[in-house]
Design goal:
Helices cover 39% and strands 22% of the residues. The chain has a 6-stranded mixed sheet, sandwiched between helices. It is globular and about 45 Å long. It has 198 residues and is α/β, with parallel strands linked by helices. The protein has 8 helices and 6 strands. The protein starts with 6 loop residues before the first strand and ends with a helix. One of its GO terms (molecular function) is oxidoreductase activity, acting on the aldehyde or oxo group of donors. Pfam families: POR. This is Indolepyruvate oxidoreductase subunit beta. InterPro entries: IorB_Oxidoreductase, Pyrv/ketoisovalerate_OxRed_cat, Pyrv_flavodox_OxRed_cen.
Length: 198
């Protein structure tokens, strides 16, 4: 694998999901693998349910800036937020997203419509060369912690061959950087993500 392969990754999710923690974990994994990393928060909402966006640039970028149409990969922790983040994806980029919906307050109040998954997938397919949807929250809960669903998504992208490091390096990073009490659920979640590309 080319350790200095240049990649721009855009993360999006909702507050309370742990998407900023996921960004930090993937950044630490990249550093652990000897890859140059620049990370930045585009937009973070402390309150639960607000949109959270961050970027991870691998392979020697100078600034954590990302404009529309520049991301090589979108990692979406919620399907509607993945769709909303689509303008950041370059034509032919790749999308990894949770398929488990967490409708925003506007939908709960009847002010907004939540598109169905077929519509979300069709609109993403207009831009992305490939897209992968995994039931992350469901698999996280099966692994022992709903929050471990983020690890399912990260493991899947690591197993895909797109990144300059693989899922084995991610597994080592989990063991090194996650508190011991969080490791069993996250290591099980990692196996679910790994098996997606098996």
């Amino acid at each position: 694998m080319d350790a200095q392969k240049k990649l721009r990754i855009y993360f999006t999710g909702v507050g309370g999901q742990g998407s900023l923690t996921a960004t930090a974990l993937l950044a630490r994994t990249a550093l652990f693998a000897g890859v140059d990393v620049v990370a930045g928060e585009v937009h973070g909402m402390a309150q639960r349910g607000g949109v959270v966006e961050s970027v991870l640039l691998l392979g020697g970028w100078r600034s954590p800036k990302l404009e529309y149409g520049e991301a090589d990969v979108i990692l979406g922790f919620e399907p509607l937020e993945t769709l909303r983040g689509l303008p950041y994806l370059r034509k032919g980029g790749v999308v990894f997203s949770s398929s488990d919906a967490m409708p925003p307050v506007g939908v709960a109040l009847g002010l907004e419509r939540y598109p169905d998954m077929d519509e979300i997938k069709a609109r993403i397919a207009e831009v992305a060369s490939e897209s992968h949807f995994l039931p992350c929250r469901e698999l996280g809960a099966k692994a022992g912690a709903v929050q471990a669903g983020n690890t399912v998504l990260l493991a899947a992208v690591c197993a895909s061959g797109i990144l300059p490091f693989g899922v084995d390096v991610f597994e080592e990073a989990l063991k090194r950087f996650l508190p011991a009490k969080l490791q069993p659920a996250n290591l099980q979640a990692l196996e679910y993500g790994r098996s997606y590309f098996a």
